[in-house]
Amino acid sequence: MTYFQSRCMYCDHGKQITATQTSWSIHLASHKEDIIEHLIDTSDSCQLCSYPEMSANKKHASAHYRWSHQKHELIKWAFDTLEKRVIV
To answer: Contact 45/52 with Cβ under 8 angstroms?
Structure first.
């Protein structure tokens, strides 16, 4: 079984978490709104679309992420962008 060790950038405590990908996905699911907020703050266009769509404003970007993308896409993006260490 493969474990991933990282700090959750959406948690306030900043502790190291060591967990499987499934456990990380469950944890990150509780941060859906934080993930959307992070995406909005760090880019002017959609990070998940094949053809990046520019956002008119933060409200438009927020609505786009909520309605155009499924929750598992947001979680996968957050997991893939974690600075993690693989522990076998």
So the answer is: yes
Query: How far is the C-alpha of 76 from the C-alpha of 81, rounded, in Å?
Result: 9
Sign of CA dihedral 68, 74, 77, 81: positive
- Taking CA atoms, 47 is separated from 17, 21, 65, in Å, by 25, 21, 9
- How confident is the chain (88 residues) per 10-residue block, as mean pLDDT? 91 86 94 94 88 84 93 95 84
Is residue 55 within 8 Å of residue 44, measured between CB atoms? yes
| pTM exceeding the 0.90 threshold for the entire prediction | no
d(CA 38, CA 32): 10
Strands 16-19 and 85-87: unpaired
